[in-house]
Amino acid sequence: PKVRRKKKSSNKPLNAREKSFSQRDPIISLNMNLDYLAKSGQKDAAMRCEEMLLRIEALHDDGYYEKSPDVVSYNSVINAYAYGRPSKIPRSDHAKRLMRRMEEKGLKPNSITWNTLLRCILKEVGEKKWKKFSGQKVQEAESILSNMEESGLATTISYNTVISTISKSKSSESAERAESWLKRMTERYETTQNDKIQPDTTSFNSVIHAYANISKNTRGAPKRALRAEELIKQMERLYRSGKNDKVKPDVISYSAAVNAYARAAVQDDRCATRAMEILDRMVVLFKRGDKGVKPNKRTYTSLINAFARIGKPATADEILSKMKKLHEKGDKSLKPDTVCYSSVLDAYARLGGDDAAFRAEELIHEMEDIYNNGDNDVKPNTQSYRSVITALGRSKQPRAAEKAEQILDEMIYISSHGARDLAPNTIVYNTVIDAFARSKTVSKAYRAELLLERMLEESKEGNLSIRPDAITFNTVINAAARSVYGDSIVRNEAYLIGLNAFKTLHELDYCKPSSITYVTFLKLLDNLVASDTSRDYMAERVFELSVSLGLANDAVITQLRRTCSPLVAQRILSSCDDTDVTEENESKWTLEIE
User: Fold this and answer.
1) pLDDT given at position 59
2) 419-451, pLDDT tens digit by residue?
3) Rounded to whole angstroms, how far apart are CA atoms 556 and 575?
């Protein structure tokens, strides 16, 4: 038999094809794992990504791997910090630290690297922990984008991220500032025709959101809403003309404009009507075949809020009913939820009156029935019940306050049997006390005091969620002040209840009286103290105390004039003008009411 001779070993190095897969492409495998882990949402994913990166770098330095981690590897780790959970250290600090390490390793950050850093800054602006630094974050993002423009690394994503960062900062000038970057982006694109910086729908939507997210109380909200709508019209013109086929308005565009008008409705009722007109236009466009502008739940909810804010709960209720009908016909996306119902309930609470209270009760019962049938999306929450209590308190229904207290007791019972999210808080208790204060119940002061005592007792035992605040005490005093329907025994009891609440408030460390406290207590004296001499004497002592605490504003002075006889009020105010109120003489003005 022939003997096979072994080939002589060659010292010639292996070519790329002859190398093992692990030796040839360890970085491809690393990058795939890093990308998966970065997007997994797992706890400490970013830290684990960085540890993996450093291990491979160490193995390369020891000669185990021919290749070391590349730009893609570092981008994946930075991306993990961008999408990971917040930590004690800002995301952008981690990103910048890794970028410095890249440069030390001879790797040059690319567009994706810088865009991911911008993404980190965007996330920080939206996080409560770093909210106070939002102005600095915006300036940093703008500076980074300017440098990217100079180096030719800016992309559409770069501009969109910076515009979104400005929009989320919600400063008084954020909308105009965001739009200035959109104009800058548009001008650069028109000049260079560089597709990499072509504005798209997201670019415009971010600016529209900036105009929509301005506080409803910000001056000029209607004009900002109009500007948001004009931007949509600009998008329509650009898209129809063929100048930019990437700026077609979508449901997000129109919904943001609806929201802008909804917020502005507080300042101009016509904005609510305009918001409805935009929604109607969306419906028409959808029926014509534009599937991308179909109104969603957020669109309808914004419209409900618009009419709720201008005191038209019936219209808000009609919009809710329309959503229910569309859902029953098969549109699953328009199923009303707790937010929709709560907005309508809040509108009825704001309106007040018997009909509003009756409809609020109907809606809360409807929510309870739907929830009890297994639909968690319509579970009543604390705000829902509070709105019903408020509506009852502002009505003249018989036993409305008693109904409000019954709802409070039901919340306590339900929360004690597992539904802890329905546990009533201080605001709910205050609302029930206010319902008694507004009612014609003869024992209103006594019922209000019982609720206050329950709050004090439970808060001492550790339930701080119902610890009474200044509003609680003021409302109890108000319930006493309005106890004018009973006989002399009831009125005297009400006076003592109001006096006790007034004194207790001044003794507490965790809450302090306000000017409203003094206005309300002076009303109590006016309504319940029959003797002119006694009333004048007590009013003077109370007013002096308000002066010593710096709480004697115009409202207190006005109420003093109503409570005291004219000559006494004039003397008190004249002597007050000539008195130097200091901490030294404050002590002598302690309350001396027997």
Assistant:
1) 87
2) 888 999 999 999 999 999 999 999 999 999 999
3) 16
Summarised one tens digit per residue, pLDDT across range 270-310 is 999 999 999 999 999 999 999 999 999 999 999 999 999 99
CA–CA distance, 302 with 297 (Å, rounded to integer): 9
> According to the 3-state scheme, what is the secondary structure of 98-152?
HHHHHHHCCCCCCHHHHHHHHHHHHHHHCCHHHHHHHHHHHHHHHHHHHHHHHHC
Those residues whose C-beta lies under 8 Å from the C-beta of residue 49, and which sit 6 or more positions away, are: 34, 37, 38, 76, 77, 80
CB 34 within 8 A of CB 80: yes
Residue 216's pLDDT is 63
Give the position of tokens 């306590």.
412
The token pair that represents 213 in the structure block: 């997210």
Nearest to residue 481, comparing CAs of 527, 418, 432, 515?
527
* Structure-block tokens of residue 468: 């009474």
Nearest to 401 by CA among 377, 427, 432: 432
Q: How many other β-carbons are positioned within 10 Å of the β-carbon of residue 550?
A: 10
Q: How far apart are CA 264 and CA 270, in angstroms?
A: 9
Q: For the chain, how big is the Rg over CA atoms in Å?
A: 33
* Calpha distance 510→426 (Å, rounded): 14
CA angle (139, 144, 147) in 5-degree steps: 125
> Cα angle at 508 between 507 and 510, to 5 degrees?
160
Phi-psi region of 483 (alpha: psi -120 to 50; beta: other; left: phi over 0): beta
Give 239: exposed, middle or buried? Use CB within 10 Å, 0-12, 13-18, 19+: middle
pLDDT tens digits, one per residue of 489-531: 999 999 999 999 999 999 999 999 999 999 999 999 999 998 8
Maximum distance among all alpha carbons in the chain?
138
Quote the tokens at residue 32: 């795939």
Geometric angle at alpha carbon 553, from 550 and 557, rounded to 5°: 120
Residues in the chain: 594
Burial (CB < 10 A; 0-12, 13-18, 19+), residue 87, is middle
Rounded CA separation 11/413 (Å): 85
CA distance 127 to 169: 10
Rounded CA-CA distance 261/207 in Å is 15
Across residues 579-588, what is the average pLDDT?
43
